[in-house]
Amino acid sequence: MAKLDEKIGFIGGGNMAFAIGSGLINRGIVKAGQVMASGPHLHNLERWRTLGGNVTDDNAELVEKSDIIFICVKPHMLEPCCSQLKSTYSPTSRDKDKLFVSVLAGVTLTSLEQHFGFIKGLKMIRAMPNTPMQIGEGCSVYSSGSCATQHDLEKVHLMLNALGLAQQVPEAMIDSIAAVQGCGPAFIFTVIEALADGGVKQGVPRQMALQFASQAVLGAAKTVLVTGKHPAVLRDEVSSPGSATICGVYELEKGQIRATLNNAVEAAAKKNVELGMKYS
């Protein structure tokens, strides 16, 4: 697997940043010493130290020392983060070689390029990953800003694709896709919990029920990906006439599981758009 020599920085060391950073280290894409995370409270970055990474409470220091900078703050922190960075960062001739990657939900490339306009020759890529990246099973989409090069896109693809599935898409699609792959894991965690609870209700020990529910979801997902068959076809293959499976599927349909999941995706997509409008 290809490796990167660049130093990788994360402005904001929260869960998404840690999923990407720890994933890159665990997969051998970078060494721990190449990684730095910043945050206002160093004690919140202890897990980065445990990984062998570097930490700082100075965003300007992180930008200065990093070649690829992931912006991982919450959308409402974009304005204060940029204002603070603008007042403390000293531009250098190396700025044109730095690559910024935003994972801020809803915030457009146009807005990002405006906020970070004090960086000369700013190269920005907007990405939306998800937290399963930390175990190498992530799903990411990304779009290019006006100054990012093909080489920059290849670097981002290398990092994100090494941690799962990654694909470049038109920016107009990101908010909708993010509602599926970005929010989707949380929806499926709820499904796994509900399946396990159903098992417990039927007398299965909780830990066993959780383990089997999780493996059932994992196996079902991999079957779709490996066989290429439509989920409806796979469902019909195991729903024999009068079987336990078809009885259970009938109850799911009665409970409007399709409409509920559709509505969840729609609500998440709308929220992404609202965030972009609010913080642009």
UniProtKB/TrEMBL annotation:
InterPro entries: 6-PGluconate_DH-like_C_sf, NAD(P)-bd_dom_sf, P5C_Rdtase_cat_N, P5CR_dimer, Pyrroline-COOH_reductase. Keywords: Amino-acid biosynthesis, Cytoplasm, NADP, Oxidoreductase, Proline biosynthesis. Pathway: Amino-acid biosynthesis; L-proline biosynthesis; L-proline from L-glutamate 5-semialdehyde: step 1/1. Residues 171-275 form the Pyrroline-5-carboxylate reductase dimerisation domain. Its main location: cytoplasm. It is found in: Cytoplasm. GO terms for molecular function: pyrroline-5-carboxylate reductase activity. NADP(+) binds at I11, G12, G13, G14, N15, M16. GO terms for biological process: L-proline biosynthetic process. It catalyses: L-proline + NAD(+) = (S)-1-pyrroline-5-carboxylate + NADH + 2 H(+); L-proline + NADP(+) = (S)-1-pyrroline-5-carboxylate + NADPH + 2 H(+). GO terms for cellular component: cytoplasm. It comes from the Eukaryota. Residues 7-106 form the Pyrroline-5-carboxylate reductase catalytic N-terminal domain. Its EC number is 1.5.1.2. NADPH binds at N59. Belongs to the pyrroline-5-carboxylate reductase family. HAMAP family: P5C_reductase. This is Pyrroline-5-carboxylate reductase.
